[in-house]
Write a structure and sequence with these properties.
The chain starts with a helix and ends with a helix. The chain contains eleven helices and twelve strands. It is α/β, with parallel strands linked by helices. Strands 3-2-1-4-5-6-12-9 form an eight-stranded mixed sheet. Strands 7-8 form a two-stranded antiparallel ribbon. Helix 2 links the parallel strand 1 and strand 2.
Length: about 300
């Protein structure tokens, strides 16, 4: 087994983790953040980074990042974990200007320095559930950290999907090309065609989470409100995409994955392929019920 493929094996012992998240963008980030914090017996949280985003919920990448920073603090408050405020860092205020130029930010600098304290044998796990700008910037600042981290990213669509206009990837294609091309051990959780099956609905959330604690009530209210605003029908279902990135790191047989040659994200929002590229680990199926059972149990505790 090659060194890279060996490092792409799922960890069996507790590991150190950082989370890079555009928390204010959608409600699924809040679930993922809380799931991570509640999984501390297996996942030791070392830092939380706010990622940029730009859509109807922000005035630009910098505003999205600042709103995400505030929402991380809000989720920690709802969980009674204000003790973790000191590990929350502001991220990039813009996307990469090119594939060779980092965007300086407290998050990118912190990750670049933190990762230097790890090794191939005992890496830092970087879970990213937004635009990959902060992580790509850290890799450009300190290329040697690619030998010291494993990146788990929810980004891009399935390899068979007819386009690649996925929100996290399409915001910063240059950053995506950095992480897919630099040789860092990468676990990809694609959105449409794979993680899109990880959906819940209002009655399910009401049954399992309502009244359990302030965080659970907040999640149910926010999810229901967002779904009704966007879909306009009461028979809605909603994907909680980002939870799956945390799920990959946990024991429980929550998904199926395989090795694939690293795809090449193109600026026209499609992949191209080269069989000579290095390998990544590619998730191709989510065991939806098993992972939701674990999520609901953790959040309601």
């Amino acid at each position: 087994m090659s060194d890279l493929i060996h490092r792409l094996q799922k960890p069996t012992d507790p590991v150190d983790v950082v989370l890079d998240t555009d928390t204010y963008n959608e409600i699924d980030d809040q679930y993922a953040l809380a799931f991570l914090i509640k999984s501390q017996a297996k996942l030791r949280v070392k830092a939380l980074y706010a990622a940029p985003f730009f859509n109807e919920r922000s005035y630009g990448p910098a505003d999205g990042m600042r709103k995400s920073h505030a929402e991380i603090l809000n989720v920690l408050r709802l969980m009674g974990r204000e003790d973790l405020h000191g590990i929350v860092h502001m991220g990039s205020e813009s996307y990469l200007p090119s594939e060779t130029q980092a965007v300086d930010s407290p998050a990118a600098r912190h990750l670049a320095e933190l990762a230097m304290g790890y090794t191939k044998e005992a890496p830092l796990y970087v879970v990213a559930i937004g635009a990959i700008t902060n992580v790509a910037s850290a890799l450009l600042m300190r290329p040697e950290i690619r030998e010291r981290i494993v990146l788990v990213w929810l980004g891009g669509h399935a390899l068979h999907w007819p386009d690649n206009t996925e929100f996290n990837l399409s915001q910063d294609v240059a950053a995506a090309r950095v992480v897919f091309g630099c040789g860092v051990p990468l676990v990809q959780l694609p959105c449409m065609g794979v993680v899109s099956a990880f959906t819940t609905c209002g009655p399910e959330l009401e049954y399992w989470l309502r009244g359990k604690n302030p965080l659970c009530d907040y999640l149910v209210d926010r999810t229901t409100s967002a779904a009704l605003d966007e879909q306009k029908i009461h028979t809605w279902t909603r994907a909680l995409w980002d939870v799956t990135a945390i799920g990959w790191l946990l024991d429980g047989e929550y998904m199926l994955d395989r090795l694939e040659h690293s795809p090449i994200p193109q600026y026209d929002h499609h992949y191209s392929f080269d069989p000579n590229r290095h390998m990544i680990r590619y998730v191709y199926h989510i065991h939806r019920d098993k992972l939701f059972a674990a999520l609901f149990e953790a959040l309601a505790y």
